[in-house]
Amino acid sequence: MFQHEFESTLGNSRMSSAHPRAEDSERKRVVSASLTLGAAVGITALSFGLAAVSSGATVLQACALSFFTFTGASQFSAMSVVGAGGSLGAAFGGAALLSVRNFVYGVALAGRVSNDASGRRLPLLQRLLAAQFVIDETTAMTTAESNPRLARTAFWVTALSLFITWNLGTLVGALAGSVLDTNALGFDAAFPAAFAAMLPSHLRTRRGRMAALTGAVVCVALTPFVPVGMAILVAVVGVLFGVRP
Amino acid sequence: MSDITLSAGQLWMLVVLLSGVAYGLKVLGFVVVGNRTMPPVLERCLALIPASLLAALVAKDTFTSAQELVLDARAVGLAVAIVAVWRKAPFIVVVVAAMAATALVRTLA
Question: What is the pTM for the complete model shown?
């Protein structure tokens, strides 16, 4: 989702050598890239905490969303619809649709993360725990590594570092938001800016650009005629650009 | 953004529902379906959801207020955000620049 931030850290990813010392330094590279990404995501979480509180959530609700939902775009989306006066169903629907990509990521990651070093499948409890961490960033970092051992390291280090920074950042941002005059400071502009920052990686293909344009046009065109937040749901028709091969 | 119509209880329900569905989708892909291939047409369509919805959210949060279409200071904020994204600025710079531009336009207006 925040692809441009970690493209630089992924840029030097390469096939790892069988030589133990080389593998050791490869491991260090993966760990440090994952930790760097965690720090960047913590800053994003600050803006989520601020935005959530400015949309009417309590500090505890913002933190609960980050801890249990743990998928940024859906969290931002739900709070954006709530802040605009949307219904529970509208806020939930758009955010749930955005979360469908976590299903796709799960399918992509299962073969890379579900087994241990000896190829044995991890216990169910551990796989259920890992599932919570199946998000944009862990998928990008894990699939960037062709060596299975490094891929597993990338997954777990990214998962834990992001889980910690995402939740801490949300707490700090929400606490700050609850004492600041969020309207005067232009916090409502944080939402469209955040969504714009998440978009570029989805606009690389012509199909993606057509889907985005359709989504935006449908949303604006329908807004006067449907309940608040529902236009977001209908905007999903943009995915029909994927029907033809 | 103070047009909120949900009660505290409804907000909590949103937190619970969304957390449940998000986790359910993660488990469905990672644990239940697992390492299988999906029909290509489904894969292509699912991959386009973020493009459609994120662009729709940008449009909604910039050009609408409840059910009305409006053109206000947020449009300037978005323009600044787009330039920042285009110049590959970090996430926080994009957000803060958009907020500052919006606040500035409101102060001047």
Answer: 0.84
